[in-house]
Design brief:
Elements: H1 17-42, H2 47-50, H3 55-65, H4 92-101, H5 108-138, H6 149-161, H7 175-190, H8 194-205, H9 211-224, H10 230-238, H11 241-254, H12 259-268, H13 276-288, H14 292-313, H15 318-332, H16 341-344, H17 353-360, H18 364-387
Helix pairs in contact: 1-5, 1-6, 1-18, 3-4, 4-5, 5-6, 5-7, 6-17, 7-8, 7-9, 8-9, 8-10, 8-11, 9-10, 9-15, 13-14, 14-15
Length: 393
């Protein structure tokens, strides 16, 4: 990692920069999985069992049996299973897992874990490129000052791979797929590669409900850049199709155009409460809780708000800033399983770009010294949440 702000970032080379990003990502995640293995062994479990808990069971069941064949033993947060319950989960990831699992000698578990390993590498390459592009665009106007695009990109990969609940990137969950699609959609926007942005956003729309934020950002950016020609208009058309298409499918299943929202609110109490639940949780936890999961979650929520302010002050490119900010806002202003906030905020990792730029300006040894505790702390926290904390994440 060079601290020089003038080291060239080989944006045009497909042979070197992404390899560095992938190696860095795999190294950080290997540490996380090794720590998880140790925790699982000490607590009487297995790594495989921990990587497929909670929502992972739903993903594997949908992948293997489809929405109509999910076992009755799987229930929503209220302990209820109906013919509509499984439709709370978007189909992009489980259907992709199911397609891979149809290949010879591949089980749904193997497909899910292997797929996320590959998707994590794709997301890491996208993070490196996005960090580099942002560092270039911010070099003259950001109060942080110029920073090496190359170093910024690689440090962002470390921070992405070591977010507090980055263990979910190795689990049978949708975060890895969504992050890979979202980061490359943002790269497409910043580089005016509108077909890339539109296609990635379409797929993200079939992956997670958080995609509504990405859809809005990509469509607005494409509208502003409409003079780029038909490709920008294509991005406008493509972006919402995955999200709206799935809502239409659930409409057909439930008989209501708001069917998906009803399934979510009734099964998982997910609704907009304008931040009341988040505020009460943070206030009560920081003042009076000694429980690791709750305290860490509260501070991650606070840190997310601080990162929003820093990203705005540092003049992060507006599509990245708006996307990251709206992800945080959408999570903090809604109800649901409060402990899952640490995981749900992971796709807002793009708000860490100013921090990556700041670290890219210091000596490499100093940057490494600051990043090592982050990686170790993330590995410990993820293992704790999957093996010691007894509830869903």
């Amino acid at each position: 990692m060079s601290s020089s702000p003038h080291r060239p970032w080989p944006l045009g080379s497909p042979h070197l920069w992404w390899i560095e990003a992938v190696v860095v990502f795999l190294a950080v995640r290997a540490i996380g999985v090794i720590v998880l293995a140790r925790f699982a062994d000490l607590n009487g479990g297995t790594v495989g069992g921990r990587l497929t808990v909670w929502d992972g069971q739903w993903m594997l069941a949908i992948a293997e049996y489809g929405y109509g064949g999910v076992p009755l033993s799987l229930t929503d947060a209220q302990g209820v299973h109906t013919a509509e319950t499984a439709y709370a989960f978007f189909p992009g990831y489980p259907y992709l897992v199911g397609a891979i699992a149809k290949l010879p000698l591949i089980t749904p578990f193997g497909a899910a874990i292997g797929l996320n390993l590959i998707l994590g590498c794709v997301a890491a390459a996208g993070a490196a490129r996005l960090g580099a592009v942002c560092a270039r665009q911010m070099s003259e106007r950001s109060p942080i000052g110029p920073a090496s695009p190359h170093a910024t990109g690689l440090i962002l990969v470390v921070l992405f791979a070591a977010t507090p609940m980055s263990i979910v990137l190795n689990m049978a969950y949708t975060e890895t797929l969504f992050c890979a699609l979202a980061v490359w959609a943002l790269v497409g926007v910043l580089e005016h590669r509108w077909l890339l942005a539109g296609a990635m956003t379409l797929l993200a729309g079939a992956t997670r409900p958080t995609s509504v934020v990405l859809i809005g950002v990509v469509m607005l950016a494409a509208i502003i850049a409409h003079r780029d020609g038909w490709r920008a208009w294509a991005a406008i058309v493509l972006s919402p199709l995955g999200y709206l298409g799935y809502l239409a499918i659930v409409w057909g299943q439930t008989g209501s155009p708001t069917g998906w929202f009803r399934v979510q609110s009734e099964g998982w109490d997910t609704r907009i409460d304008w931040g009341r639940a988040a505020f009460n949780f943070v206030n009560a936890t920081i003042v009076g809780s000694g429980e690791v999961a709750a305290t860490a979650t509260a501070w991650v929520m606070v840190a997310s708000v601080v990162l929003m302010a820093i990203a705005c002050w540092s003049r992060l490119p507006w599509p990245v800033l708006v996307y990251g900010t709206l992800v945080v806002v959408s999570i903090l202003l809604s109800t649901g399983l409060i402990i899952s906030r640490t995981r749900l905020l992971l796709p807002a990792f793009v708000l860490l770009i100013p921090l990556a730029m700041a670290l890219a300006r210091v000596r490499p040894a100093a940057a490494v010294a600051m990043l090592v505790p982050v990686v170790v702390g993330s590995s410990w926290f993820g293992a704790h949440m999957l093996t010691v904390f007894p509830y869903a994440i």
